[in-house]
Each structure stands twice: as structure tokens, then as C-alpha cells.
Amino acid sequence: MKPEILQLSPILIPEVREQLASLFTVHPYYQQSDKAAYLREVGGRIRGVITGGHTGITRQVMEQLPQLEVVAVNGVGTDAVDLAYARDRGIVVTATLGALTEDVADLAMGLLIAACRGLCTSDRYVRSGQWPLSATPLAPLPLARQVSGMRVGIVGLGRVGRAVATRAAAFGCPISYTDLQAMGDVPYTFVADLVELARNSDALIVAAAADKAEGIIDAKVLEALGQGGYLINVARGKLVNEADLVAALQAGRIAGAGLDVFVDEPNVPEALLSREDVVLQPHRASATVQTRTRMGEMVIASLVDTFAGKRAVGCVTG
Ligand code: 8YV
Asked: Residue 40 has what pLDDT?
């Protein structure tokens, strides 16, 4: 009999879905309107869970899956999984470590360039027919901020942070970073204090894991980033105090922001929607065919390995 899997978030690659269906009986929890009733019906038979990095799985749901052996996160962040509870129960948790590094770093640079160079504003300007009016004072398009050579501060020098640093260095940007400790194997400047990092940066790029780091980008950090500074977030929305961010933008205390992630996805603070100094993405940093295919393959491998009694690829529970 095929192992039964509870799927908490969609998989967008058809080949991955087909392979999953051939190996497992997949129960699409995310499509159910009455999730509690669905859990009561299938929960007792579930041996594996597939979920997204942002979706994770609560302890309450895991408690209703007595046969659960593995939670395969189709993403790199495990902050939305109760890891302590999973470890206590001997449930293996896996993540697609390394699979999405390049895409997330690419999007961080894309957001930085888009925010500094006003790409989305300029796109709207062309589409709305304002360009032909540009000789008149009716349709001014302000000059943009140069990206090359900006002082870039990276919050969290893990896989993604390092990939961002490589890219930003190629743009001639001096790189500083903060993390739990200095790293001996990188040529970048370590700054222990986040406020000081912000003060010495023209762009602050958030690439940190979100475990226990809620709201670290707050009013003080944004104040230090300053009027010419840009905030880019490709990690988790909850790392940023969104109310402080909105207030800083409204008061002109920072120059702009590029955001792929938000506190309460898919809800974005209303105040951001009409602003020309922010570029917004719907949590799509890993959303390329190539990366999602690789992530899907890792999810399948981690389920197969666990059910075969082997150490699962991407295991984060030790
Ligand atoms: C994914 C993410 O979009 O990796 C993560 O932690 O949040 C995202 O890259 C998500 O997990 C897709 O399901």
C-alpha cells in the first residue's frame, strides 16, 4: 500500500505532482473547505506531510496525525514548523536546503534595482501614456538612485545572504553583514550591531532565518538606515515591524523598500499599495520552473528516504 501524504500547500510543477501521485496517496488538505472534518477523516492514516516554508505546520495539526513520520517542507525556512514538538515525537523535518539560494538572491538584487531605479513606476509611466507628455511639467519622472557602488548591509549571512553578497560585490558594492557571529571565510565586514549596520548601509538586505528574530527591523533600524536608505526583504515578513516600516516610508525617514514577504500573507498593508517608493512581490523569490522542479525532487526524495528508513535529504531535525 502506498504511504499516505497530507499536502498543506500546492505544488506547481506537473511532473512533480505526477511523481508524487505515482509514489504516494496524496490528500490535498489545502483544497478542503472543512479542514477539521478532513483531518478527522484521513488524519489517522497520514505518514507524511508536504508543506510550504511560509505555511509550515502547527503542533495542533501534527497532534492529529498519530502515524506522522516526516514533514517535508517545500522551502528552506522551517520557522513555521514546531521543530521542538517534532523532535520530541521523532518526526523527521526536511527542507529543500540549497535548492532556492540562487533564485532568492537573484530576486533580492532585482528588488534592489527595481526599488532604486524606479522600474515599476517607470513601467506604469510608459503604459499609462505619460511618456509623450514628459516635456511638460504634468508628468515628471524623478531621477533614480544608482545601484552600483551602494553600501550594502546584509542581515543574515547564510546561503542566501552569501549569494546576495556575491552578486552585490559584482556591482562594486562594499559589503557588510550582521549575523550571530563573524564568519572567517568571507571578505566582508562584520558588524555585530544591526543599528550600526543600518547606519553604515545604503541598502539593507534581509536574508535571515526568522526563528526568534521577529520584528528586528524596527523604527530604530530604519531611522539608522536613513533618508537615502533602501530596505529589501526576501526572508520572512515577520522579521520587519511593518507598522514601523510604513511610518518610516510615510515620514520619508527611508528612501524606499523592495518586499517579497509580509507579516500576514497574502495581506499587504494597505498603506504600501499606493506608494511609488516600494516594489512589492507576492512571495515569489523561489518561483521559477527550474528551482521549483529541484525543490519538488528534494521533497520526493526526503519522503522516499524516510519511508525507506534512511536519513532524509535536507533533514533539519538531526
Ligand atoms: C517558498 C519559502 O516560496 O523557502 C521558503 O522558506 O518561503 C519560499 O521560498 C515556499 O516555501 C514555497 O512553498
From this structure: 98
Q: What's the CA-to-centroid distance between 78 and ligand 1, angstroms?
A: 9
Q: What is the pLDDT of residue 139?
A: 62
Per-residue model confidence (pLDDT) at position 138 = 59
Is residue 9 lining ligand 1, measured as CB closer than 6 Å? yes
Cell of 155: 542581515
Could you give the C-alpha distances from 149 to 109, 160, 172, 293, in angstroms and in order?
13, 20, 5, 35
**Cα→Cα distances 160→40, 95, 128, 262, Å:** 39, 14, 36, 18
**283 flagged as catalytic:** yes
What's this model's pTM, rounded to 2 decimal places? 0.96
Nearest CA to ligand 1 atom 12: 52
Provide the residue ranges of all domains of the chain, joining segments of one domain with +: 4-99+289-307, 101-280
Residue 77 CB–ligand 1 contact under 6 Å: yes
Residue 27 is a catalytic residue:
no
Helix axes 159-170, 101-117, angle to 10 degrees: 50
Q: Which CATH architecture has domain 101-280?
A: 3-Layer(aba) Sandwich (3.40)
287 Cα nearest atom in ligand 1? 3
The pLDDT score that the predictor gives to residue 192 is 98
CA distances from 318 to 35, 55, 72, 84, 157 (A): 31, 22, 14, 11, 22
Does the fold of domain 101-280 match that of domain 4-99+289-307? yes
Give the pLDDT of residue 141. Answer: 87
Ligand 1 atom 13: residue of nearest CA: 52
Q: What's the whole-number mean pLDDT along residues 204-228?
A: 96
- What pLDDT score was predicted for residue 290? 98
Q: 96 CA to middle of ligand 1, Å? A: 9
What was the pLDDT predicted at 211?
Answer: 85
Which fold does the domain 4-99+289-307 belong to in CATH? Rossmann fold (3.40.50)
